[in-house]
Amino acid sequence: MQRFGKKQHLNSRRDLKNQPGGREEDFNSSLRDLAEACKRGDRSAQRNLFDTLAPKMFPVCLRYMGDRETAEDILQEGFVTLFTRLDSYSGEGSFEGWARKIFVNTALMSLRRTDALKLSDSLETAWGVGSEGDSPVRAMGYKELLELISQLPAGFRTVFNLHVIEGYSHKEISKMLGISEATSRSQLQRARMLLQKRIKSS
After folding, report:
1. Is there a single domain that holds both residue 79 and residue 129?
2. Do 131 and 182 sit in the same domain of this protein?
3. What is the structure's pLDDT at 198?
4. Angstrom distance (rounded) from CA 71 to CA 108
5. What's the predicted TM-score (pTM) here?
6. What pLDDT score does 28 carry?
């Protein structure tokens, strides 16, 4: 199986918004052209689209799943969904952003299937997570942050990814995960406290 992630980027919704307009538009124009060719059944275009998006989407999958093997499974599942839903892309807006939603949703569905999102509350006491404090994680490099995030319980990791990295609001997260906004905030706070604890002990 092809391996990804040697050169990794945060690749969040914020990152796309902050890209220089000309470069982003050229890149998305190229992706849209590939997508149109894929709709016509062009196998070469399908391969090119996979090769272009996989290095960008694998870090997204890895952030949510926490280990490379599972992330690679989610990457493959995500591409199956992407290719079957290409007709639903209207051509408006960022194709990369549209694709990323598919991979995030694929990861979330996998976590729901295993009830992983429900396990975090029961782990609170075992991990010794408090309710106050802040975390210096924003000042860390990507590789260090990714390593710490991968060690979080699934619920903490998911909310942290969605809010801090992807930029979703707690209201959006509550709808995506089927939890209350208060639970989303609580999971985020606990994730930050646990990351802070690990940073101090490292």
Report:
1. no
2. yes
3. 80
4. 12
5. 0.66
6. 83
Q: Which domain holds residue 45?
A: 13-113
Last residue of a domain, one of 63, 92, 113: 113
The pair of structure tokens assigned to 54 is 């996989």
Determine if residue 57 is left, alpha or beta; phi over 0 gives left, psi from -120 to 50 gives alpha, anything else beta. Answer: alpha
Cβ–Cβ contacts within 10 Å for residue 132, how many? 6
CA 121 and chain centroid, separation: 21
What's the confidence (pLDDT) of residue 2? Answer: 52
In terms of domains, do 129 and 197 share one?
yes
Phi first, then psi, for residue 71 (nearest 5°) are: -60, -40
Residue 4 maps to a domain: no
Split into its structural domains, the chain has a count of: 2
Maximal CA-CA distance, the chain: 55
The span from the CA of 161 to the CA of 145, in Å, is 11
Same domain, yes or no, for 129 and 97? no
Q: What is the mean pLDDT of each run of 10 residues along the chain (202 residues)?
A: 47 52 75 93 95 94 90 95 93 89 92 65 39 46 72 89 87 91 91 83 70
